[in-house]
Each structure stands twice: as C-alpha cells, then as structure tokens.
Amino acid sequence: MPAPEAAPAPAAPPPADLVNVQIDGVWLKFPKGTRMIEACKQAKKEVPHYCYHPKLSSPGNCRMCLVEMGMPPRPAPGQEPEKDEHGMPKIGWMPRPVIACANTVAEGMGIRTESTLTQEVRKGVMEFLLINHPLDCPICDQAGECRLQEFSVEHGKGESRFREEKVKKPKNVDIGPRVRLDDERCIMCSRCIRFTAEIADAPVLGFTERGSYTTLAVHPGKRLEHNYSLNTVDICPVGALTSNDFRFQQRVWFLTETNSICQGCGRGCNMETHARGDTIYRQTPRENNDVNSNWMCDRGRLDFHFVNSEFRLTDPMVKNQGKHEVTSWKKAIQAVANAAVGVKGEEIAIIASARMTNEELFFVKQLAKILGTENVDVIPRLGEGDNYLSAADKNPNSNGAKLILGSEPGSKLAGITELMSRGRLRVVLALGENLLKCGFERRDLEKIPSLVTLHILANASAELSQIVLPGNAYAEKRGSMINVTGRLQRMDRAVNAPGNARDTWEILRDLVVACGGSNGLHSIEDVFSRLAAEVPAFQGLSFAKIGDLGVPVLETDEKIPLLEREKERKAKGIIVG
After folding, report:
1. What average pLDDT does range 46-70 have in this prediction?
2. Quick one: 540 and 484 in the same domain?
3. pTM for the model
4. Considering only CA atoms, which of 444, 438, 480, 479 is closest in space to residue 464?
5. In what order do the strands lie in the sheet with 179-181?
C-alpha cells in the first residue's frame, strides 16, 4: 500500500487543516469538510450520481452515490489505536453504505468506491430507477448524453426482474414557453426544483404524490417561464425536460461542439456552440466560475437563429443605376477605396459596432487613420440588467471598443449625425450596424454620395448603400472581446460563412491596404500580436494565452450578482461551488 500523498489541488486554496483519507486503498490528504464525492473526484475515482450538482444543495435523493465507508475503531481505555504498515490507523468498515454527496471527510476515514458492496448497491439503485422508466431511448432527445443510459450500462444488471405494469405518467406536458416535460422519464433527482428555487428565485416546480406515483409538476397558476428556464434542461440527467427549440432537431452525436462566448450582452457568458455541417442547432453554457458559473440566460442561448437566416448576405454588391449588382471582392474593395481616397477626413465617418472583435476594431482604427478622419464611433446599447447574469450593456465588446478606439462608445454620434443631416459627409462606412435601426434618419442617409455597408444580413441600410460587403457572424469567426468585468475572452469558429462572405477582419484589412496602408497580417494570431504591441492592457499576451477561460486585463466596478450569491452559499457550506 503506497504511503500518503497529497491529492490534486482544488480550485480554491486549501485551508491549513488537512485530514488523511484512504480512497480505494490509497491514503490522500484533503481539506477538512470536503464532501466525499468531491474527494473521490480529486482522486480520479468516479462516483456515479444523479441528484448531486456542485452548484446546488445536496438532498441525497437518488442514492446512486452510495459508497462503502469506514473509520478507525475507538481503542479501549489505555490501548493505542492499531496501525497499518504505513503507520496509519487501521479502518473498521461499516456494514451499511453511505451517500457520498452529503457527507464530508474526516481524519482516518476510509472510502471504497469499487468494493463488492458498493457495486451491488448501485445495481440495486439502478434496478429501482428503471422499473417504471419507459424504453424510449430511440426517440428521446437526451439519447447520447443521458446519465441514465451511461450508468445503466456501467452499473446496471442488464435485465429487469419487474413483471408488473409500468406506472403511466403525463407525457409532452407544456410547462413553459421554452421547456416541455415528459414525466415518465423523470427519476426525481430534484435538480430542476432546486435550480428554480436556489438560483433563479422562481420556485415554480415541485413533486406531488408519493412513491412510484411521484410526479414533477408546476405549481397551480404558475409556469416555468423565467429567463433562465432552459438551464433546467441542461442539468436534467435524463430526458424528462427538453427544449422546445432543440426538440427532435438533431442527434447529439452528430453535433460538433465549439467553445465560444455569448454575444447577447456585455457579460460574455462562456458557452458551447453545437453545429452539424454549417448549421447551428443549439448553444449551451460552458463552466467558467469567473464569468457565468454553469449557467446562461435563455435569451442569449437562443440568439443564434439569425446565423442560419435566409436573409444572409452572400456576395459583395455595387449599385449600378439604382440596382445592386453582384461583383468580385477585388472590385468591391477598390470601389470603396476609390470613393474614400482623396476625400477630406472631416467628410468621412466610420460607424462601427461594439459587437465587433478586438481584431476587427484594430483595423477600424487603422482605416480611420489612413483616411484621416476622427469621425469614428460605435453604437452604444444600454438596457436593463437583472440580478443574475444579464448585464445592462447589451454590446458584448464595449470595453474593447473603448480601449482600442480610445473614446467612450456613443460620444461622437451626435456630431456625426449633425454632419450627416447638414449634408457634410461624402463617405460613410457602416460596419456591422443597420443605421436605420440605430437612430439615423433615412433622409439623412440618402444625402450621402457614398454609403458603404458591411453587414451579415440584408437590411434597409444595405438597400440604401452604394456598396454592400458581406461579413461573417460571431459563430463564423475567431477573435477576442473584453466583457463588462474587464475579462479578455476569445471565440472560435463553429461554422463557415455562407456563399462568398468573408471574415470581417480580412475585409477591413484589405480596405486598409487598398486605401494606402501596409499589409503583413495574415491570421488572427498576427493581428492580436500587433494589438499586444500597441495596447498596454494586452502586453505579454498572445491569442493562445487567452485560453478557454480568458484573462482579466481591465479593472472595472462591475459585479456579477449570481456569482456573488454563489460565493456566499459556498462560504456557508450550502454548495461546493
């Protein structure tokens, strides 16, 4: 038996009070108070579970996490405790298993996760869970990522001794605008109930009846309709709760997962984009305890359908005799350069977007410098935040725009609008914004001799433009952004842009070159390296060093309400966190 060794370090600095715990014959050290299931996880020993979730309280419902436990016997008066060959106390094993999710480790404790007793009780739990469970895996949306499927293979008996009629329960129940319930699949883990009560502060779910007839239900007169309802689908270990938006759309094993960040507001929640081919089917939260924990709002996760829109711009176009005609990229870029080069800087305006990446904004700045204009700004978007994750700033990269362009978003728009209304602007570049939806008047846009739109969708402003350039959507690009708390994060490409649409940063780079600027930047990594050399906040960083969880680069006063409450609950020992 090996001598005691330190377990892998937990996420937070461990307290000084460590205890010795034997897990499957190996002695390790853990902070006092660590839950048994987390100690096993750190020791790389899997303990199957359904009801346990580190961000929720532990009710011990499912009993799937039963393990064999032992403690050193109390010695008789005057006797020394018996030691093993390594000087550690010998363990007396209890004849009854205990749940690992709600019990904590103690000095000298022993845990067995693979003993005969443990394996037998898991088989028993699985047999009871499957007694009334419908065999509808072929049509269940959870197939492929179902914990019940996985654990039935690993810990089940492989056959059922139950010969009676299964209990029938409600199916396809409409419990909210975005979630449906199949009660026959529910294993009563209560994760959804605890999430709505503890995280979303909307306790609308609960159990009714008893025993085999227990049913998950919405409280009378209530519906599961808050902005975080789809998180219940994520944490449901079976197919009891399914998303109306994703239901029957695609099998999960056909989907490719790509790490990205949400564009719905300035929070920049970490997420995974699930796509097949060049079509996005869903977005789900990705754990980042410095940004969004394990959660994500419904509005943000469902904001992807425009990427698959039939109104996507797919080819560059130039207006000829009042009608747009498809042209080549070379001719379209040159047409923009011909319209802008030689025009006085005060007669040119660039209206960019705080939805653009840092790399794209870098070229916006370069383009403005080449054209000699200071009429450069982004459209601010302020709304209402909530007491959870949604930020009041509805742009995902306002801090990046402020840092790179050197001005407060929206500070120059009044001046640009005035120049436009007086007919003083000869060239206006609208980059990533539909100006008619941003407060600009149609009559003012019609006064501009050369209006250029770079966008992903056909819109009213593009219709008025002399030149239209199709860019790429957030899911089709690589780049970085800075969220409202000052954290630099990156996104990766999940799907390809349609038709002849190109990467926005490449379009802007070519515009800079066509207007007389220098080249030499051929990848996002190259662009970020240039940014890191010019922007002090990025000094010492590379695109790769941003990592999947991002790095803080700015100090802001912004707090994340959900994470603040999570810290309080963790400090009280209610959750593991």
Report:
1. 95
2. yes
3. 0.92
4. 444
5. 173-174, 179-181, 241-243
